[in-house]
Design a protein that fits this description.
The chain contains 15 helices and 18 strands. The protein is an alpha+beta fold and 538 residues long. It folds into 3 domains: 166 residues, FAD/NAD(P)-binding domain (3-Layer(bba) Sandwich), CATH 3.50.50; 181 residues, D-Amino Acid Oxidase, Chain A, domain 2 (2-Layer Sandwich), CATH 3.30.9; 120 residues, Alpha-glycerophosphate oxidase, cap domain (Helicase, Ruva Protein, domain 3). The strands form 2 sheets. Strands 3, 4, 5, 6, 11, 12, 13, 14, 15 and 16 form a 10-stranded mixed β-sheet that branches. Strands 1, 2, 7, 8, 9, 10, 17 and 18 form an 8-stranded mixed β-sheet that branches. The radius of gyration is 23 Å and the shape is globular.
């Protein structure tokens, strides 16, 4: 992939998508797959904000049943199955344990199973999800010995899905859009709208932050997919406060040593929210906070208070022997969820529905804003956006194909069998390396191995997952990585479990510096920036 903005074609695009998170990526992909000319710009790196701050789950939203959001639950469950199909290397079954399975919970489980009647319609047999079931106390304790006994009585197990790398799944949508002709650019910030007349938007003026120069893009429609920044972009229309404000909820997570083995374990907090422990990459992911955020989204940071809160909630699930302390936190991350629901007193109970708003209702043509939604339903959201686009462009767009086509690099019919096969075919590398590359790069895994074979300095595993320096080179050459943070946190998982160690960090920094032509000062700044990211707030 290349940043199109550096060699800008002289053309008017059908769509200009502003925002390169999962929503913008899905919109760009659906539009391009239907033959529209699409340009996507993102002010930071692709999927670096909300889309990188998820709980790693692809889920139906069991708790939404309590709000009677039956349509949202059904949509989410259908999309969960679709993502299992089109992204089999990224999405896997996740058993979830709920304790104290009273009558209401069991009724909810029955409804959840009923709404996911198509969960067996997977292209890969290994992706089929069972119905909920009771689990004996002795069985739970044998499988999850770190959990308090009183927290697992009358346990019920249901199934959702885990995304091993939401960052790379977002990138798969981006790459799929590019496969159909979309042009993209990260580090390209929308500064203002272009107008033809007073009430018709004709494009966007973008600052290319990588090259420090302005670029004007013209298009028939602009799609605002800026998530927590959607209203801030709208302020650029009138140079005043937007009429419609986005409600923002902060979601923070921490990574610790391995605490749970097989099941996601959760419970309701005293404040009415919930906390969960998820097995992820031989560690445990603990989340999430759900507190309203007031202020500039650019100023959001993970707080020490939020980390302490999560530790306290987690310890109510863990026995004394396995209780965690602050020094057990290896990494913390967070982001802001954009919400359109403002009738509730707290954001936890706010709906995760989405809204597609045509600003023609305000007398402003050429602009559509997409707000709200959840990661799981992004593909379907994009499909609905296309219905509005079809009307605005006054041309038939044909049938959606994103629900029945593999994402780029994900063309694998039997995931587990395929992993076994590629491990056997590449015995000159550690099995962990080959398996990790297979799951994160799908059918393109061999390109990374070929790089490593040509230069064995790029072949040495950097962590227990078997990740290797060749991934950094691949990220630079083929995935538009421009910073050390892009490589460590979004193109690979080298930095997402916490500090990888001085040797690994400098190996990746040296690789990046060599191919991106950084001088020693620039390399030092890049290292300093990621070191700050690894430092937990007090």
């Amino acid at each position: 992939m290349k940043r199109f903005i550096e060699t800008l074609p002289e053309k008017t695009f059908d769509l200009i998508v502003v925002g390169g998170g999962i929503t913008g990526a899905a919109v760009a992909y659906d539009a391009a797959s239907r033959g529209l000319s699409v340009a996507l710009v993102e002010k930071g790196d692709f999927g670096a904000a909300t889309s990188a701050a998820t709980s790693k789950m692809i889920h139906g939203g069991l708790r939404y049943l309590a709000n009677r959001e039956f349509r949202l639950v059904r949509e989410s469950l259908r999309e969960r199955r679709i993502l299992e199909n089109i992204a089999p290397n990224f999405v896997y079954p996740l058993p979830a344990l709920i304790s104290n399975g009273n009558r209401d919970i069991r009724i909810g489980m029955f409804i959840y199973d009923l709404f996911s009647f198509d969960k067996g319609w997977t292209w890969d047999e290994s992706k089929k999800l069972p119905c909920h079931q009771s689990l004996s106390f002795s069985r739970v304790m044998a499988l999850e010995p770190a959990i308090r006994k009183e927290a697992v009585r009358d346990s019920v197990v249901y199934y959702d899905c885990l995304s091993i790398s939401p960052e790379r799944l977002t990138l798969a949508f981006i790459r799929s859009a590019v496969r159909y002709g979309a042009v993209i650019a990260n580090y390209a910030k929308a500064e203002r709208f272009l107008f033809s007349g007073r009430k018709k938007i004709s494009g966007v003026s973008v600052m290319d932050l990588a090259e420090d120069r302005p670029v004007d893009l013209t298009g028939r429609l602009v799609i605002n997919c800026c998530g927590p920044w959607a209203d801030i972009l709208l302020e650029k229309v009138k140079n005043e406060k937007a009429d419609k404000r986005v409600r923002r909820s902060e979601g923070i997570h921490i990574i610790t040593r391995k605490l749970v083995n097989h099941y996601m374990v959760s419970h309701i907090t005293s404040g009415g929210g919930h906390v969960f422990l998820i097995p992820w990459r031989n560690h445990t992911l603990i989340g999430t906070t759900d507190r309203e955020y007031i202020g500039d989204p650019d100023d959001f940071r993970v707080s020490g208070e939020a980390i302490s809160t999560l530790i306290g909630h987690a310890n109510r699930l863990l026995n004394e022997e396995n209780a965690i302390r602050r020094e057990d936190v290896l990494f913390a991350y967070g982001g802001l969820r954009p919400l359109v629901e403002d009738r509730t007193t707290d954001v936890y109970h706010s709906s995760r529905k989405y809204e597609i708003y045509d600003h023609a209702a305000d007398g402003l043509e050429g602009l559509i804003t997409v707000e709200g939604g959840k990661y799981t339903t992004s593909r379907n959201l994009a499909e609905h956006v296309m219905k509005t686009v079809e009307k605005k462009l006054n041309r038939p767009l044909g049938k959606c194909r994103t629900d029945c086509s593999y994402l780029a690099g994900c063309e694998i019919r039997d995931m587990e069998k395929w992993i076994q096969q590629i491990v056997l075919e590449n015995k000159d590398f550690e099995p962990e390396t080959v398996a990790s590359l297979g799951r994160n790069y799908g059918t393109e895994y061999g390109r990374i191995l070929d790089m490593a074979r040509k230069d064995m300095r790029l072949a040495k595993p950097l962590n227990a997952d078997g990740e290797i320096p060749a991934q950094a080179l691949f990220a630079i050459r083929n995935e538009m990585a421009l910073t050390l943070g892009d490589i460590l946190f979004r193109r690979t998982g080298i930095g997402t479990l916490g500090h990888p160690g001085k040797e690994a960090l400098h190996t990746i920094a040296d690789t990046a510096a060599s191919y991106l032509k950084w001088d020693s000062a620039r390399k030092g700044r890049e290292i300093e920036t990621v070191e700050e990211r690894f430092t937990l707030p007090v």
